[in-house]
Design goal:
- The structure is a single chain.
- This protein is of the alpha/beta class and 234 residues long.
- It is built from seven helices and 14 strands.
- The strands form three sheets. It has a seven-stranded mixed beta sheet with strand order 1-2-3-4-5-6-7. A five-stranded mixed beta sheet has the order 8-9-10-11-14, with helices on one face.
- Helix 6 runs antiparallel to helix 7.
- The longest helix has 15 residues.
Length: 234
């Protein structure tokens, strides 16, 4: 796991598959996504270098984002937060729907699965449920933005006071040219495109994705330019 400082308060935690983000308010820390299972101790080490972990906000239930949530919560006592639609899947009460793969996505997914830990992961028994528009107590007021399409209960986290947007897998950086693209492995592509458009309309300077390098300057312009191509081409 690599740790990359993006802003004085914001760090990226990069895993073999996917990435998470750490936000600092004084000595209080919020983790946005938790990485896959098996990295809990290393995540906590990175957190403790910055402060005390208050909460883990999950953008969605997929293993590369939620797999480490219970490990981190057990080690720190942190609260786990997810959208109310996603929470039963995060807790393991029901399975999440599988994505509808486009043909070109299948080899990408197979490669990702090969790089994830085997054997499943522990589920948090307690999850604080949030909905669209809820404001969480960090980053000057972090707004929950429901962004369905990748999964039914996917969320983004917008910190308008700082111009920071964490998109989860609703948006990604292209592995080909580093540009901004629609996230892959969606359960509903039309919904995903609509959610991309909604996120692009937010006031964003720094966009942090679940996969690929963040955009750290004028991210809103990059999001809007990319989102327009999906609205046009379908």
């Amino acid at each position: 796991m690599d740790v990359v400082e993006l802003l004085p308060r914001l760090s990226l935690l990069r895993f073999p598959v996917g990435q998470a983000y750490l936000w600092r308010d004084g000595d209080e820390v919020t983790l946005i996504d938790a990485g896959p299972a098996g990295y809990g101790a290393r995540v906590v080490e990175a957190v403790e270098a910055a402060g005390r972990l208050r909460r883990v906000v999950l953008t969605h239930f997929h293993e590369d984002h939620a797999g480490g949530a219970q490990e981190v919560a057990a080690l720190t006592g942190a609260e786990v937060v997810a959208h109310t639609v996603e929470a039963p899947v995060v807790r393991g009460e029901r399975p999440g729907p599988p994505p509808l793969f486009e043909d070109w996505e299948r080899p990408l997914h197979e490669d990702a699965v090969r790089r994830l830990p085997r054997g499943g992961f522990a589920r948090p028994a307690r999850v604080t449920e949030v909905v669209d528009g809820d404001v969480l107590d960090f980053g000057g007021g972090a707004r929950v933005v429901h962004a369905p399409g990748h999964t039914d209960g996917s969320i983004a986290v917008h910190l308008p006071s700082h111009g920071v947007l964490c998109t989860g897998d609703a948006v990604a950086a292209s592995p080909v040219d580093g540009g901004v693209m629609l996230g892959v492995f969606n359960v509903d592509r039309d919904l995903a495109v609509a959610s991309f458009g909604r996120l692009a309309d937010l006031d964003t300077e720094v966009a942090c994705f679940g996969h690929g390098d963040p955009v750290t300057v004028r991210a809103g312009d990059a999001l809007r330019a990319s989102a327009r191509t999906y609205r046009t081409t379908g």
